[in-house]
From TrEMBL:
It comes from Senegalimassilia anaerobia. This is Aminoacetone oxidase family FAD-binding enzyme. Residues 6-421 form the RsdA/BaiN/AoA(So)-like Rossmann fold-like domain. Residues 441-523 are annotated as: Disordered. It holds the Pfam family HI0933_like.
Amino acid sequence: MAGMETIAIIGGGASGLMAAVEASLALRQAGAVAHVALFEADPERIGRSILATGNGRCNISNACISADAYRNQAFVEQALMHLQSAYVAERGATSMRTLGTNLVLERFADMGLVTREESEGRLYPMANKATSVLDVLRSAAAELGVDVQTDKRALRVDAPAPGGAGCFNIRFADKTIAHAAAVIVAVGGRAASGIQLPEPLACSDMQPVLGPLRVEAQSAKLTRQLNNIRVRGAVHLERGGQRIASERGELLFRDYGVSGVSVFNLSRFAQPGDDLVVDFLPDIPPQDMERFMMTRRKRMQKLLGSPLALDRFLEGLLLPAVSAAALRQAGLRTGDWFTQEMIPQLCDMLKGMRLTVEGIGDERQCQVRRGGFPVERFSPATCEAFDVPGLFVTGEALDVDAPCGGFNLHWAWSSGMLAGRAAADRVASGEGVERDGACAEAAKRSSSKRSPFYTGDVNPSSGHDSRSPVVSRSGSSQAAAHAGGSSSFSRAGKPHPSHRGERGKSRNQRGGDAARNARHRNR
């Protein structure tokens, strides 16, 4: 590994893992030799955030991906177009015709993952467990020789010296430093604001979105009566009498406000003082409501032959608790006799129960954080910073977010693929030759006993050979060199024979594998 260049990836979540796999594949395809290192702050494992997605099932993507679902739509649209162009170049225009438009799924299929589609285009692994997604990513990373290190919280990334000389220095909380020719920042949530990047890159405040909404005290009196009750309908977000956004689906009342997928999506746009307007009967147009109510009243009275109390009139239409709460908000009582004069009030209540937004409810339930590094500072083709060549930012760390349904994970995978490939192309093409040499030289100065990209609290007497793969905290050794000219995965998802994992093999087994691999290369 002496003199070998490093692509350092900060963050072992969805975007970081995909970036590591993609960078390694691109290096193999280019026949380049480089070291891909993945640093994760979690002290125990990579990919923990993936396991929490989709209620443990991992809503990996969506069958109806469109850039207009995303914040900073123009940037995302260009990024997805560039990703498709990269795959046309990789696989050829002819084979591209046989591929689906969802290139994320194509890459996962290469790794062996099978998916299935559920309602509203949501895509899940066939095994219905998020662990199956993480398993194929971890296996691919291991088989491609990605060096994974946990318990490595990055604090700062220092840029190379002006003019391109030198290398990036990544400073960690444990006072160690990593040197790299290219750096991909793939952290999410609060972690993005905790990393200092070279000027002029600055992370804006990260605000939790895609979560439940808290309502003001007066509205909370109503939601408290309905705590943990679910209804289906439409919810509109209004500001100053103008409709901002609308969603249909499930609504969950909580003692502090409202939750559910429809509310999560509206939380991306909601501000304190906005109104949530709940429509319990979205399939009936407003102009048809009075006729619907009158027809319903006549049919019920014809059968029962007596006047109807309000609560009886609403039976079969709403849950009793919802009816009682809605009637109270409308200034009516459940035991009052239903009259024709009440119809306008009932129509308004059924089509427009109003709740005033105070802010985000339980932040722990928020699926993403809005903000991060502004997209204007980055190329949509590569996610590389315009002002700091060789530095890439992906996933949630960029100011991109989308509604529920697999869109945010799709962006994490896609941006990781773009950055991983671009970083590998940069290293493989020899861009920044002065920097490359300086990185290797910095590593030599750091310690002749360590891997060339890594310095810090080192024990010089440890006897660690700098030519051997880096040993992670867990003690597992992983190959770091990348060579060869073809993808490591067939369409069936099987690893190339020369890239199978080495873990758990005896010395004799590894020797036999080496001989077989030598014969394979000479074919």
